[in-house]
Amino acid sequence: MQSEKISSSSITEQTAAPAALLVAVDSSKTGQDVVSRSLDELEDLAGTNGFVVKGRVVQRLERPDGLTYVGSGKLLEIVEMARDMEVDYLIFDGELTPAQTRGIAEQVDLRISDRVNVILSIFAERARTDEGKIQVELAWLRYRLTQLTGRGVELSRLGGGIGTRGPGETKLEQDRRVIRKRMAVLRGELRKMEGRRQRSRSLRQRREMVTAAIVGYTNAGKSTLLNKLTDSDLATGDQLFMTLDPTARRIEAGDGLSLILVDTVGFIRDLPGFLLQAFRATFEEAASADLIILVCDMADPDAAAQIEVVHHQLKDLGAGSLPFIYVLNKMDIVSSEALHQVMAVLRHEKADRIVQVSATTGLGIDRLKEKLAQFVKETLVEYHALIPYREAGIVAHAREYGSVTEERYEPDHIILTGRIRKSRIGPLQAWIEEGPQRSGS
Ligand SMILES: Nc1nc2c(ncn2[C@@H]2O[C@H](COP(=O)(O)OP(=O)(O)OP(=O)(O)O)[C@@H](O)[C@H]2O)c(=O)[nH]1
Ligand SMILES: [Mg+2]
After folding, report:
1. Nearest residue to 291 via CA among 360, 368, 198, 233
2. How close is the Cα of 122 to the center of ligand 1, in Å?
3. How large is the angle between the packed helices 303-316 and 336-345, nearest 10 degrees?
4. 8 A C-beta contact, residue 261 and residue 215
């Protein structure tokens, strides 16, 4: 976010942070509770983005107005308020359409932003790796394009009949072309990076590594938990979207088995589609894991609703049917309301899939480690197989999806011993010694 520098001679309390007023619409559908929580969150987001929030305005409407979001009358009222509070920004709790952005700008002499813009700005500030930066830029461009498209339609109508071109339209077409070109370049670069990641993913599989993705709402304590589990020091903080780049760490699970833990980008309500799209590769990291560790912020009264948001978005990413472990984090400062509601949401889950921890005090961490070790053991099976030479291809399969500890070439078969993912045992099954198929032979 741009912010004016204060000169050293400045003696007022005025800070460089721009002041903002939050604006929301409360439709009968949403309800007051939901609106006020959404505004709490928007206030956090705005704070993370460097704004100082001076107040909130909620307008009851069936749905946001197509041109002014809150209606012209209300908008005038808001302008008055903003003047009294010395506010420079209005931040709308939603995604403004191009028509609304223009409609509001025509009536209001203030700077305008919305939830999507705020989230995008945070992402832009946070991205550290090349991949993260490219993803953010792609998201910006995709956003710009939707805004331009909307406007373009109207301008071309203004331009007259078919074949005539208004000057605005030509410029727009140029803009769009430039954007599309840049997007193509960025996509190409991303593909190269994804290729690299794919390779390291299959490397992990070949090395028999079971992977767990740590997912959850933003600020739930995912990175803190990963640090605690693996004695690392990834950046954490009481800010939204601290983590934008997935980081993997290895944890020993006993008996010489280990597990790869992957930290991920936090989820949030109304994550704009184009952002999800831009970060898809990152989120897919979670979808390709063997286990989802879903971290909940038990200090947040909204924890139960956050679990549902995460569930929903994971399902969209194709990770809905993976095995889950629910980690109820921040139990050192748990809100009893959150605990009550979360337990209600998880009532159908097996009790041994729920662990209460505190990633800062270490409470419950050993129990979680035990569960992870148990999961690794359940995921892999030990086998001892006699493979006929005509099936020698199975040896490569066994190497790909597990670890081979013994490989001996006897006159009439290959003796193979090792561990393999249960889900990949198929081709080996018939040749396992002491397995049901071989008993008696
Ligand atoms: N009291 C308490 N605070 C915690 C606990 N776990 C995490 N926190 C705090 O919660 C805040 C967020 O923690 P992070 O680990 O950055 O959260 P995250 O889920 O990685 O957040 P994003 O990367 O932004 O999505 C930090 O200020 C942590 O110190 C806990 O068990 N108890
Ligand atoms: Mg994090």
Report:
1. 368
2. 17
3. 40
4. no
